[in-house]
Known about the structure:
This protein has 20 helices and 10 strands. The protein is an alpha/beta fold. It folds into 3 domains: 3-38; 60-313, TIM Barrel, CATH 3.20.20; 318-399, no CATH class. It starts with a helix and ends with a helix.
Amino acid sequence: MSEHESMNRREFFQKSVYKAGSVALTGGVLGAAIHNSHAEPPATPVAPPQPPAEMPAVKHRRLGRTGIEISEIAAPGDSLRDPLMFSLAVKAGVNYFHKADGSLSNPRNRELITKERDRFYLDVVIDALEEDRAYEEFERRRQKTGCDYIDFFKVHSTWNSVEDFQTKRGVLAAYDRLKKEKKVRWLALSKHNPRTNEVLTAALESDLFDAIQPAVSQIGEFQKLLALAKKKDCGVICMKTGAAGVGKKPELAKFGDPEQPYRTYFRYLLSLDGVTSVVSNFKNFEQMRENLGASGVPMSKTEVEAITLALLNAPRNYRDCITCGECRAACPGGLAVDEIMRYRMYAEDYGDYHAARQQYADLPAAWQELVASGRDIPADACPYGLSVAAELKQAHRWLA
């Protein structure tokens, strides 16, 4: 029960007792008059928000060398758990679920998927790098989905450097075991922390991965990855797109509905050569309609070029952090700037204040003091021109 609901009930009880007592003590016509003087007209019932009869239909595209056709808009399994919204997404044609163990932990969602399992594509993220731990983590997540197999074993931002990728291969051995056991079909990699572009480039060059899921920030760097992925016939699913849509709202407003920046931004991303799909949040029916509506409405080459130029020339803000990690060496104590920027994104753009502040609170106290003051952080700490000190001080205001 919410605090608002409990207050309403308490007030109702108090008023009811007062009225009943007044009638009992006074009685007769006077009692009725006192009762009526305190009576309030019954409130008009407020109807709950009604879901739309249907959502915009979603188109599908080939995901690289896997040959499968997935929806241009992918669902975020860690936040899309409501059965009504889940069923609306499926009805609209969404067939790819990122972090599927989240959505399918709900029995109603799980039943919807398992009845026609071959129609849908699921991934689970693996954070462990050691073989046995990665194997066990996959099995825990798979069992939550209620499925015999998962389509994508997705290594999740655990390699922080190219050296890590080249030497810490236990997680890949776990994938090989699971593939032999027919519990997984393809290998994927998501990346949104230090050395993102370097690690993804090394992964693409290795030809081990069937799909990648990069965080999109600096559009110029992202386009280089797209070119390599296309050469390797590797599918690309964009993630962390919500924050970018908010951060570039002034630029996006020039090319579409100012009230629907996500639709404009998703249309743009889906018009870039090499992009297969975009992971989208669905916080409410309106956002779901806006985001699904980006599918099947490609932009012209001229529009893409104009938006690309606008994004490249836009003022820098923390959402442009590509988590390259270069600033760590420039900052005192190897400050984890990229992690703090991500926590700020969770709070400021996603509204997940509790988780963001909890993670920030776990950082060393000396780091938090440094973030609050911006002291001794060089003006040129970011190779892409981001004002690190100013953005960190703003992050502290959100997270402290």
